[in-house]
């Protein structure tokens, strides 16, 4: 007979869910994990932040906790819960150590701590927070999600895929006592009971345009793609139906590298496609102009700032302009996280050249022998683009960006063809506003009282981010998910 009663039910089998299930099972709980899709291991991410992990200690990386919390709360103008920030800095190292000791080592992997976080200007203040899963110190092991799920199974956790949470079951006191689920292949409905609690780890809502319109309408003007096509917000809606409160302002993680066809109108271009449209070079601080051909901001800033600046520009898209010489001198545009040049970044200089070639073939990148010809191909006013490039080259020659203050070492002239350009918009990686939770990851109602039996972690939980993602703390979203997932799995039994 199928078992229908568990101690703990985790909804969502990716980052937060995998860590929540393992933590509860380690404490002896009978755990069921459900996920609406057929797999989830590929969603476990490359770069995971922490403070004081064993890997960071081995690498001599030290981060001042107070300084980091102050940075995160200032970045969000304190529209966050400082208790959650402190909870994260105090527990993230332990979550990484569990991953390395209990999961990675038996599979031949380890964590590599990235120690460099160079910045010259305050806008780029950064922390060396990243841990990367690797076997050979040359590349990521992107299959590590499989190891977490196997570890959970070894601890006795049951996984049911193609099983979607429809709604939460409550008793007469509004305590959450289980889940009502749908088999996504047969549409059969069933119920499972949780004696200790249900932990929601269902991610964001960026693939649900109706919820985007309601909770974060400006994100539809900042993004051309979403790369989380399963994020339908259903977990958050289930919690709201039993009285949960949620953040009332949006937060998100956006990459400034969504290459789109020339002439795209962002108002009717929001593509939900798992296939990557990431034109990685777009996150490098090369010359960028608005659709009038004018430079409009300091390109050397956190990824998401470009998309915020574009809200004040016509058409909300930017055009990046560069030449062949730039491609041969990319080292000075090396930044953090996955726009590092070389591992642990996505590409090296040769990879970027191949990418440009691919997008030339697709017709998104245009090539020309003069700026005037390039402007015509990009549908930009040629006179203005010529003026902008000439001014930029003068600033490069002067060695000082008197217009926007980009670091001098990144002022590389665009003089001499062949010239290239591409139109870019945002890629929404995830929404980050969510359900109100306390430091035990209990979901709160509008009085800030816990809804008994209900927990949340990862992108379906809020209070941690506001507005733009602080990408100068590389790996923070994945770490927020796994650290708080692990905490939820521990506290549900406490
Ligand atoms: C391409 C890409 C690369 C990224 N790289 C990084 C990185 O290197 N570092 C970093 O810090 N962050 C990265 N991120 C962001 C990071 O992936 C997320 O912030 C993090 O994965 C969130 O984890 P989560 O567990 O909350 O949600 P998810 O990983 O999105 O998992 C949610 C799970 O819940 C399931 N689910 C949803 N609704 C239901 C339901 N109703 N019933 C049952 N199951 C349900 C989904 O199928 C999914 O498996 C990246 C994001 C993308 C898109």
UniProtKB/TrEMBL annotation:
Keywords attached to this entry: FAD, Flavoprotein, Oxidoreductase
Q: Which domain of life is it from?
A: Bacteria
The GO biological-process annotations, alphabetized, read as: steroid metabolic process
User: For the FAD-dependent oxidoreductase 2 FAD-binding domain, which residue ranges apply?
Assistant: 7-470
What's the protein here called? FAD-binding protein
Provide the coiled-coil residue spans: none
Q: Which residues form the signal peptide?
A: none
Give the originating organism. Answer: Levilactobacillus suantsaii
Q: What GO MF annotations does this protein's record show? A: steroid dehydrogenase activity, acting on the CH-CH group of donors
Which coenzymes or cofactors are required?
FAD
């Amino acid at each position: 007979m199928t078992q229908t009663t568990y101690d703990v039910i985790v909804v969502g089998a990716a980052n937060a869910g995998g860590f929540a299930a393992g933590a509860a099972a380690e404490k002896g709980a009978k755990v069921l994990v459900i996920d609406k899709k057929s797999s989830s291991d590929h969603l476990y991410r490359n770069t995971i932040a922490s403070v004081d992990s064993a890997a960071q200690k081995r690498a001599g990386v030290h981060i001042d906790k107070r300084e980091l919390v102050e940075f995160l709360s200032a970045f969000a103008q304190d529209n966050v819960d400082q208790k959650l920030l402190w909870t994260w800095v105090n527990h993230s190292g332990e979550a990484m150590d569990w991953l390395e000791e209990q999961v990675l080592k038996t599979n031949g992997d380890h964590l590599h701590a990235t120690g460099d976080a160079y910045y010259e200007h305050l806008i780029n203040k950064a922390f060396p927070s990243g841990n990367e899963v690797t076997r050979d110190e040359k590349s990521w092991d992107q299959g590590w999600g499989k190891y977490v799920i196997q570890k959970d199974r070894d601890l006795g956790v049951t996984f049911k895929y193609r099983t979607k949470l429809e709604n939460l079951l409550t008793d007469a006191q509004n305590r959450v006592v289980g889940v009502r689920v749908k088999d996504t292949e047969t549409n059969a409905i069933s119920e499972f009971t949780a004696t200790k609690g249900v932990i929601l780890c269902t991610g964001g809502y960026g693939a649900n345009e109706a919820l985007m319109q309601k909770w974060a309408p400006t994100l539809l003007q900042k993004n051309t793609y979403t790369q989380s096509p399963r994020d339908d917000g259903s977990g958050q809606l289930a919690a709201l139906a039993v009285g949960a409160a949620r953040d009332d302002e949006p937060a998100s993680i956006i990459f400034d590298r969504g290459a789109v066809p020339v002439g795209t109108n962002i108002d009717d271009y929001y593509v939900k496609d798992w296939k990557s449209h990431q034109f990685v070079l777009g996150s490098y601080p090369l010359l960028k102009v608005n659709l009038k051909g004018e430079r409009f901001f300091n390109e050397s800033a956190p990824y998401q700032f470009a998309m915020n600046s574009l809200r004040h520009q016509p058409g909300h898209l930017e055009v990046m302009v560069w030449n062949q010489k730039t491609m041969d001198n990319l080292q000075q545009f090396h930044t953090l996280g996955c726009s590092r040049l070389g591992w642990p970044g996505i590409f090296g200089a040769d990879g970027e050249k191949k990418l440009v070639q691919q997008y030339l073939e697709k017709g998104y990148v245009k090539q020309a022998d003069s700026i005037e010809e390039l402007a015509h191909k990009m549908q930009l006013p040629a006179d203005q683009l010529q003026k902008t490039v000439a001014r930029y080259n003068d600033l490069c020659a002067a060695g000082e960006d008197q217009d926007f203050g980009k670091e001098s070492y990144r002022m590389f002239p665009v003089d001499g063809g062949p010239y290239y350009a591409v139109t870019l918009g945002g890629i929404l990686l995830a929404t980050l506003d969510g359900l109100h939770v306390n430091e035990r990851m209990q979901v709160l109602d509008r009085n800030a009282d816990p809804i008994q039996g209900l927990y949340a972690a990862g992108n379906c939980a809020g209070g941690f981010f506001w507005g733009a993602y602080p990408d100068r703390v590389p790996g923070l979203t994945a770490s927020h998910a796994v650290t708080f997932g692990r905490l939820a799995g521990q506290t549900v039994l406490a």
